[in-house]
């Protein structure tokens, strides 16, 4: 796969402005204002959060009720044909015809997107090889496993050499090994070919592993838009474990105003406001004659980020 020199100038993969979509009484997206950079962006949300609705609007398959959206700097309302040339789409639903082979289907879709016959055949062979379909690509799709079908859907999204692919729940229905393989493939689409990716999932851990940036929506409302590095930033909390007398060390730290939370057994966490607190942990352990088993920074994980969100919601 090569880049084609038709890269639009926009720095952002996606931008939405006050984007709203309703279906009768249901509000699928509510005044969504978000920008998504190039690279791999993970769109996280529970079932019904509005992920598929957003993707369909970005592709021009659905019109917004109000507000607007841009893909690669192009307006989704008016630049549909240009967007479809530059964007590939892997739908969530089962949509493959059972009685044709992967090769026949992907060549057909490549030709539909405007590629000449010979180029369509070459790119189909390259793309199917890239997604890991080999001899089986000549067999009817009806006999494929779920993982193979997902690869065919991915291949058809890539065959016309897009600048951005929108992948709707690509790991759905896969076993753990199949998920790992699909996630690896998605990452390589970005790193090896420079194609930006917007991938949806309701599984946080998946997107934490492969996305550069995360967008979280719930009930059609933006919850967070953050780089993955920031989401998993060092929390500044130090986890301490000593061989004995943890309660006495905790009391000493509290006496100098440190914020300490007791853990199980001989462990606790402390927020080091300055070096004096760290010195007090080490000095206190030495004074008490106990060994320091560990003293390490903890990282935030996405699941904690969500837990924080829930806590905030409960307090509101
Ligand atoms: N064509 C439609 N007609 C009526 N309601 C719809 C339609 N499409 C989506 N909805 C509703 O809009 C809300 C958002 O749906 P959407 O499919 O975008 O969510 P999602 O995050 O993609 O979830 P899922 O993973 O379950 O598909 C849901 O309440 C859904 O029932």
TrEMBL record:
Statement: the UniProt record of this protein carries the keyword Metal-binding: no
MF (Gene Ontology): ATP binding
Keywords (A to Z) from UniProt: ATP-binding, Nucleotide-binding, Transport
Residue ranges of domain ABC transporter in the record: 14-244
Pfam families assigned to the protein according to its UniProt record, in alphabetical order: ABC_tran
PROSITE patterns in the record: ABC_TRANSPORTER_2
PANTHER family recorded: ABC TRANSPORTER, ATP-BINDING PROTEIN
Family, as annotated: Belongs to the ABC transporter superfamily.
Name of the protein described by the UniProt record: ABC transporter ATP-binding protein
């Amino acid at each position: 796969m090569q880049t084609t020199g038709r890269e639009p100038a926009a720095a952002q993969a996606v931008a939405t402005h006050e984007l709203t979509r309703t279906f009768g009484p249901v509000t699928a997206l509510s005044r969504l204002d978000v920008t998504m950079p190039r690279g791999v962006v993970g769109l996280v949300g529970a079932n019904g959060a509005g992920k598929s609705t957003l993707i369909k609007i970005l592709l021009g398959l659905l019109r917004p009720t109000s507000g607007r959206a841009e893909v690669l700097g192009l307006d989704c309302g008016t630049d549909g044909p240009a967007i479809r040339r530059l964007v590939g789409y892997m739908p969530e639903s089962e949509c493959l015809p059972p009685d044709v082979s992967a090769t026949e289907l992907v060549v057909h879709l490549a030709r539909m997107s405007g590629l000449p016959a010979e180029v369509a055949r070459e790119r189909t062979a390259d793309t199917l090889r890239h997604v890991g379909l080999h001899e089986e690509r000549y067999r009817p799709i009806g006999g494929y496993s779920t993982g193979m079908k997902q690869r065919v859907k991915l291949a058809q999204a890539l065959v016309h050499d897009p600048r951005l692919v929108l992948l709707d729940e690509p790991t759905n229905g896969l076993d753990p090994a199949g998920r790992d393989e699909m996630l690896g493939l998605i990452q390589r689409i970005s790193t090896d070919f420079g194609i930006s990716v917007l991938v949806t999932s309701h599984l946080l851990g998946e997107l934490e592993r492969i996305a550069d940036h995360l967008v979280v929506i719930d009930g059609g409302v933006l919850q967070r838009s953050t780089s993955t590095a920031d989401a998993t930033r060092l929390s500044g909390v130090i986890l301490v474990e000593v061989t004995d007398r943890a309660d006495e060390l905790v009391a000493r730290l509290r006496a100098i105003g440190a914020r300490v939370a007791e853990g199980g057994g001989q462990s606790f966490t402390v927020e080091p406001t300055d070096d004096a607190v760290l010195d007090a942990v080490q000095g206190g352990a030495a004074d008490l004659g106990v060994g320091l088993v560990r003293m390490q920074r903890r990282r935030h994980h996405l699941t904690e980020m969500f837990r924080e969100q829930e806590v905030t919601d409960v307090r509101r």
